[in-house]
């Protein structure tokens, strides 16, 4: 059975239940509500997510959105976010932020890395990703997020610029085997789109049919499974799982640096 995930839906408590109902009708099996980690309401947001989970059958995840120009600050914020949120998402765009995210094992998703205001180089798109960043993302299994909201809310030259940069990042992700996900990036309920709509968007930016399907099916599920394994006390590190503890006491789980 297919399970489709939209891993970036902005959370507005007053509108969250409507978004969930619409997501169910559109065919989604799971959505991730996202909020800025440094927002003063983040703890309340986590409580709201717990309440929402009791009102629906689709899987509801929490995402912490982080933006930090340095690797050290980003890693610190990401490790703090791991203790409470399901997924760690970096608000990309700036080249320094993209590079810092690619060097951090705690990050799950690099969101819209192509979103920057710099002009493109001659005959080359300033897409926010180069071969070094792509290799680091593949090594740490950090997904590149292609956010449909960026296209929906742009026009003219800016829209064509973003599309060109996305197409370049698709080619880089394919070459270096970087996981790709497509999200709606919905701010309100009218921004939500069906899985087929997002697959069509994926093909528009150069994905094959299989890549477009994997971007809302297999790859998001792998990211979600990575988050589950990270919180599973019996999985000590990637490839090492305790089947039975026997007479030993269960050790405190370290949720960073091993996956």
Describe the structure.
This protein is an alpha/beta fold and 259 residues long. It has one domain: TIM Barrel, CATH 3.20.20. 42% of the residues lie in helices and 17% in strands. The protein has ten helices and nine strands. It has a seven-stranded parallel beta sheet with strand order 1-2-3-4-5-6-7, sandwiched between helices. Strands 8-9 form a two-stranded antiparallel ribbon. It is globular, with a radius of gyration of 18 Å.
Write a brief structural summary.
This protein is an alpha/beta fold and 259 residues long.
Morphology call: globular
- CATH fold-level assignment: TIM Barrel
Q: Report the C-alpha radius of gyration, rounded.
A: 18 Å
Instruction: Find the structural class using helix and strand composition.
Output: alpha/beta
């Amino acid at each position: 059975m297919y399970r489709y995930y939209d891993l970036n839906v902005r959370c507005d408590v007053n509108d969250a239940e409507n978004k969930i109902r619409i997501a169910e009708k559109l065919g989604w099996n799971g959505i991730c509500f996202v909020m800025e980690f440094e927002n003063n309401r983040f703890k309340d947001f986590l409580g709201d997510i717990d309440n929402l989970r009791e009102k629906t059958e689709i899987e509801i995840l929490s995402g912490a959105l982080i933006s930090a120009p340095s690797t050290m600050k980003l890693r610190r914020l990401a490790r703090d976010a791991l203790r409470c949120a399901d997924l760690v998402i970096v608000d990309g765009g700036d080249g320094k932020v993209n590079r810092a995210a690619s060097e951090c094992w705690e990050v799950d998703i690099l969101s819209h890395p192509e979103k920057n205001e710099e002009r493109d180089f001659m005959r080359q798109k300033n897409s926010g990703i180069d071969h070094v960043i792509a290799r680091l993302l593949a090594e740490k299994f950090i997904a590149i997020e292609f956010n449909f909201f960026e296209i929906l809310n742009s026009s003219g030259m800016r829209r064509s610029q973003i599309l060109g940069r996305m197409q370049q990042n698709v080619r880089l992700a394919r070459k270096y085997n970087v996981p790709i996900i497509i999200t709606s990036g919905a701010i309100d309920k009218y921004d939500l789109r069906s899985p087929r709509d997002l697959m069509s968007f994926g093909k528009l930016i150069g994905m094959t049919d299989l890549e477009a399907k994997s971007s809302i099916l297999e790859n998001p599920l792998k990211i979600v499974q990575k988050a589950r394994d990270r919180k599973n006390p019996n999985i000590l590190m990637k490839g090492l799982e305790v089947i039975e503890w026997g007479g030993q006491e269960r050790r405190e789980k370290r949720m960073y640096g091993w996956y």
